[in-house]
Design goal:
The protein is mainly β. It is built from three helices and 20 strands. Helices cover 11% and strands 31% of the residues. The strands form five sheets. A six-stranded mixed β-sheet has the order 12-11-14-18-16-17, covered by helices on one side. Strands 4-1-6-8 form a four-stranded mixed β-sheet. A four-stranded mixed β-sheet has the order 5-10-9-7. It binds copper (II) ion (CU). Copper (II) ion binds next to loops.
């Protein structure tokens, strides 16, 4: 068994090297650089309310049930998840420290950056217990770097990316052509996302989701960030359906299948109206203001770019709303954005109103269930 498995892995490695060489040549043609990220799928515990406080209300956290007749029960805020985490190199021994300005990413995967003309390489190690992948939006991929299994007429090496086995490593290669960068109505950078797509709904609800930012050619600093922006913030509005996580049973949920339409019905002894307690209405994995205020602090007059995205579940419609300040979104002034499932949006703010402000979903029951954080504007 083991020698056979090694043979398969070495075949994949050879294929990956060849494929990478081909795309690197393409990258050189476009004049960009290759940016390599070492990202693992790791099983970790995540606390939706670190610190145990509802910092919107300013009181100790206590669960509230949405449906009036919900059976009252204590609600855990800690769940085992599989998250994308960045490492310093291919040994996957040392986590790359997340800088202070990106602490707000919470349970999202590491930020992947590129500039038009670059090539992004993701060296993906699956440290979890079932196959996962990395599927990107927006950037260019050949069939060997799509990260999705379906009946697409491919075979052999073109299937190796579809799901990476536990313990295995695979290299995804994504060139960044013009059509992955800003369009005529965009600013200097655009947002995309990446996620596991072996089983899209269950993989994402398990936690495998992260941001990609692509900057226009000629408008980037050496690190890839847009040179006309002082502060970048990613906010992912996600209705995490923990009952659809692959780890639902390990998290003591009644059924790994949806209480709605998919699969067998949950434990009949569980009242249907207990629904909210295993659905987390989060921004980047934080609920009820549990994102540290220090993670979303900016200065008056800074050019702040907000990258917004939503998750994949049936009701993942969101209406991000900023108190205190306004943004430019799609060329228009507003203080409420709109996100459908997996939609991405970029909003630019130059805050002029000093203070601590609410940033929340304006779908009222999402807000009540904790889809809210605070941001702070310093003088
Ligand atoms: Cu919402």
């Amino acid at each position: 068994m083991i020698p056979h498995r090694r043979l398969v892995l070495s075949g994949l490695t050879l294929f990956t090297l060849l494929s990478t060489a081909a795309v690197d040549a393409q990258s050189a043609d476009q004049g960009g650089r290759t940016r390599t990220y070492y990202i693992a799928a790791d099983e970790v515990m995540w606390d939706y309310v670190p610190g145990g406080r509802d910092d919107i209300a300013g009181v100790p956290y206590a669960d509230t049930a949405f449906f009036a007749n919900a059976h009252p029960r204590p609600v855990s805020t800690v769940y085992k998840k599989v998250l994308y985490r960045e490492y310093t190199d291919s040994t996957f021994r040392t986590l790359t420290p997340r800088p202070a300005e990106w602490q707000h990413l919470g349970f999202l995967g590491p930020l992947i950056r590129g500039v038009v003309g670059d090539t992004i390489r993701v060296v993906f190690r699956n440290n979890a217990h079932r196959p996962f992948s990395v599927h990107p939006h927006g950037v260019f991929y050949q069939k060997s770097s799509e990260g999705v299994p379906y009946n697409d007429g491919t075979s052999g090496a073109d299937k190796a990316d579809d799901g990476v086995a536990p313990g295995a490593t695979y290299v995804y290669v994504w060139p960044v052509p013009e059509r992955a960068g800003p369009g005529p109505m965009d600013g200097s950078s655009v947002m995309w996302m990446y996620h596991s797509h072996v089983d899209e709904v269950r993989d994402i609800n398990t936690g495998l989701f992260g941001p990609i930012i692509i900057t226009a050619r000629g408008k980037a600093r050496p690190d890839g960030s847009p040179n006309d922006v002082d502060r970048e913030i990613v906010a992912s509005f996600m209705q995490v359906e923990e009952q659809d996580s692959w780890l639902a049973k390990e998290n003591f949920l009644p059924s790994p299948d949806s209480v709605f339409s998919r699969g067998p019905k949950p434990n009949p002894s569980l009242p249907q109206d207990a629904y909210p307690w295993f659905v987390k209405f989060t921004i980047n994995g934080f609920v009820h203001g549990s994102m540290p205020l220090s993670a979303l602090t900016m200065r008056k007059g800074e050019r702040v770019r907000w990258y917004l995205m939503a998750s994949t579940n049936d009701f993942d419609f969101h209406a991000p709303h900023w108190h205190g300040n306004t943004v430019i979104l799609n060329g228009m002034r507003t203080d409420v954005a709109q996100l459908a499932m997996m939609q991405m949006a970029v909003a630019d703010m130059v805050p002029d109103d000093v203070g601590t402000w609410l940033f929340h979903c304006h779908v009222s029951f999402h807000n009540e269930e904790g889809m809210a954080v605070r941001y702070r504007v310093m003088p």
